Amino acid sequence: MYKLSKIFRTAIQYKASDVYIATGSKPILRIHGDLIKIDDHPRLTKKMAEEYLLEMLNPEQKKRFEQSLDFDFSIDIEDISRFRVNMFVQRKGISAVFRLIPENVLSMDELNLPSQLKKATTFKSGLVIVTGPTGSGKTTTLASMINEINKNKKKHIITIEDPIEYVHKNNQSLIQQREVGNHTHSFQKALRSALREAPDVILLGEMRDLETMQMAITAAETGHLVFATLHTRGCANSVNRIIDSFPPEQQHQIRTQLSESLQAVFWQTLMKTKDEKGRVAGFEIMFVNNAVANMIRKGTTHQINSVIETSTKEGMQTMKKSVTDLFQAGLITEEKALHNIPKEFEA
Prior knowledge:
Blueprint: H1 5-13, E1 18-22, E2 28-31, E3 34-37, H2 46-54, H3 59-68, E4 70-77, E5 81-90, E6 93-101, E7 126-131, H4 138-152, E8 156-161, E9 174-179, H5 187-194, E10 201-204, H6 210-221, E11 225-230, H7 235-244, H8 248-261, E12 262-272, E13 279-287, H9 290-298, H10 304-309, H11 319-328, H12 334-340
Parallel strand pairs: 7-11, 7-12, 8-9, 8-10, 10-11
Antiparallel strand pairs: 1-2, 1-6, 2-3, 4-5, 5-6, 12-13
Helix pairs in contact: 5-6, 6-8, 8-9, 11-12
């Protein structure tokens, strides 16, 4: 039993999304987006924080942490929960953030995801990007989409994650999950290897750098369905982020490749509900039709928002429409709605 077990049980009791263990502070829970201190716990000294956190690492992990000074891993604590963890060194000492991962992968219906997102699980090939800030639920959305394929299709699915968060069980599909650091040395190496492992679907935890982006696009071009995440705000901005990651002399080629391989971009954000008892997601939804593909190819991506706004019959949706619908349904406050409408749609 770990010294943090009691705190973890408290986190589950209050439906916290994250647990913060930081030298110099009392333990903190993130509940419905707010940080709440555990007041009956003493402030963590450097020694206490080290005792709490280092006992969770095996000798090899401790060695890697000592070398890098920050470390991503996942841990499954029996009878409590599974956690995604980032451990790091800060000015006062050692700290860590634990993200609670539900034991079961919820379905797209259980998560109340827009029905249009199911369309992405039917694509035979291409690139599908889920984007949004850290903590917006991208991983949960992707896990539910993989679950949808697993339930309904006979596919070979390879996931490449850092670390593995949701654990999938084979249903109709064969799912093989690889964790960077434990099962492969890098996203790039695993992705390159995946192309020789006859997958139908590849889940890429994050497109972090130019090489990973290039290989994801190549995998999508060569007949694979690739799901990936980005940390961007807006569907058009996600396209620009990918293109701008490449040197100027390669951008024309990447525009052409992306216009042919990109299938959809979903931007999501979480907002506190009006009763402050939970959070609800807003979604911008873009499917790549001929108009969007031409804009990507010609470098006129600033016009993409207009296409999204006028293509509701194709399942597209602006964030403004999503947020407005949530407000009109009484799920969020007017203040929260106004705060989450992108500036380009405020007028």
